[in-house]
Amino acid sequence: MSHYQALLSRLSDVASLREAAAVLGYDQQTAMPPGGVQGRARQLALLSRLSHETFTAEETGRLLEAAAAEVGTEGDEDAPRMVRVAREDYAQATKLPTEYVAAFAQATSLGYQTWVRARQAKDFAMFAPTLKRLVELARQGADYLGYDEHPYDALLGQYERGMTTRQVAAIFEAHRPALVELISAIQAAPQVDDSPLRQHFPIEAQKRFATEVVQAMGFDFQRGAQAVAVHPFCTSFGVNDVRITTRFDENFLSPALFGMIHEAGHGMYEQGSAQELDGTLLAGGTSLGVHESQSRLWENMIGRSESFWRWAYPKLQAAFPDQLEDVSLDAFYQAINKVQPSFIRVEADEATYNLHIILRFELEQALLTGDLTVDDLPQAWNDKFSAYFGMTPPDDALGVLQDVHWSSGLMGYFPTYALGNLLAAQYLAQARRAMPSLMDDVAQGQFGGLLGWLRENIHRHGRKFTSAELTQRICGEGINPAPYVAYLQTKYCAIYGL
Ligand code: ZN
Question: Which residues contact 361 (CB under 8 A, 6 or more apart)?
Answer without folding.
Answer: 168, 169, 172, 414, 415, 418
